[in-house]
Design goal:
By secondary structure, the chain is an alpha/beta fold. The chain has 12 helices and 12 strands. The protein is globular.
Length: 329
């Protein structure tokens, strides 16, 4: 099977690339070659082009045709329309990497299935992904464009800290400083190790049954945000000093910072993975976040250059915590 990944070296796509190559897939990456050194993947054929430059990409692709094309970096209807135009006669299956953040927020019921209504009034990113999906559905109805939609939730590897504030929050945790946890810390969240996600995604490649279908691929471990902070703290050998602040108050300090909370992380999100498991029986999420947290800490502690905090964000945390304490929070 000949497969093209547009992108292919990111957090999620790198694990999928490694698994695809190990299973004998003839894998191509189409990218600019800017980030290949961070996650090198032996056995991949690389086509150098900027997917945002249509003419350049057309020339680079030449006479190539693929059984499957997976675009990891399509975020808007413009991106999708360009791909429809480019790959209509080049592939038997086009896989769009969407997001589980597009489901109704807050959810009216749990667990989330692929039939849960889509709609996120808080986050523009999610609304753009909904529009992108709609365009693919229209293209299938009008001319049979063979799409498959995949909706990841919060997928991580050793480089991605799943705490609001990233390395700044992690370093505060390590130093015993107070850390901001949104809400009361009890909302349930789903984290997915990128190697677990890869089993689901690679299992979908070339499946005719997946055409004109959507699948979310997530972990099955349900964790409160307090527990996520505790597991990160345990990996560091510390007990977190957590300060709980409502998400809407956090958003008032920094709208961009708050948008991801109100539009994605404030409410509990639990997913039913029955659909992907029915089509890809070997998909299972086996890596617990306790192990993932240790991988993250080990990677950041291996190099002090990775431990650079954001001064602005650190000051913002301090102000939020001081203001909240001053009013008896």
């Amino acid at each position: 099977m000949k497969v093209l990944f547009i992108g292919g070296t990111g957090i999620i796509s790198s694990a999928c690339s490694e698994l695809a190559v190990s299973r004998g897939i003839d894998l191509y990456h189409l990218n600019r070659g800017k980030s290949n050194s961070l996650r090198p993947i032996p056995g991949v054929n690389t086509i150098r082009a900027d997917i945002r430059n249509y003419a350049e990409t057309e020339q680079a692709l030449g006479d190539h045709k693929f059984d499957v094309v997976v675009n990891w970096i399509a975020f808007t209807t413009e991106h999708i329309q360009s791909d429809i135009d480019m790959f209509t006669d080049r592939t038997k299956q086009y896989v769009h990497i969407s997001t589980a953040a597009l489901y109704e927020t807050p959810p009216s019921s749990l667990p989330i299935t692929e039939e849960t209504p889509r709609g996120n009034p808080f986050w523009e990113y999610a609304r753009k992904k909904i529009a992108a999906e709609n365009l693919l559905m229209e293209a299938y109805k009008e001319k049979g464009f063979p799409y498959t939609i995949v909706r990841p939730s919060h997928t991580y590897d050793k480089t991605l800290i799943p705490l609001q504030g990233g390395i700044t929050a992690l370093m505060r945790l390590k130093q015993g400083l107070p850390v901001v946890v949104h809400g009361d810390g009890s909302s349930i969240w789903t984290l997915t190790h990128h190697k677990d996600f890869a089993k689901g995604l690679v299992g979908l490649l070339g499946k005719e049954e997946a055409i004109n279908q959507a699948y979310h691929i997530t972990g099955d471990e349900w964790l409160s945000w307090d527990n996520i902070f505790r597991l990160m703290g345990a990996a560091l050998g510390v007990e977190p000093n957590m300060v709980h602040i409502p998400s809407d108050l956090i958003a008032a300090y920094d709208p961009v910072f708050g948008e991801g909370l109100l539009g994605d992380k404030t409410h509990s999100m639990i997913f039913d993975n029955s659909k992907i498991k029915a089509l890809v029986p070997d998909f299972s999420a086996d890596i617990p976040f306790e192990q993932g947290a240790k991988e993250i800490v080990a990677w950041y502690e291996a190099d002090t250059a990775r431990q650079i905090i954001d001064p602005h964000l650190n000051d913002l945390f301090e102000k939020m915590i001081q203001d909240h304490s001053a009013v008896g929070g």
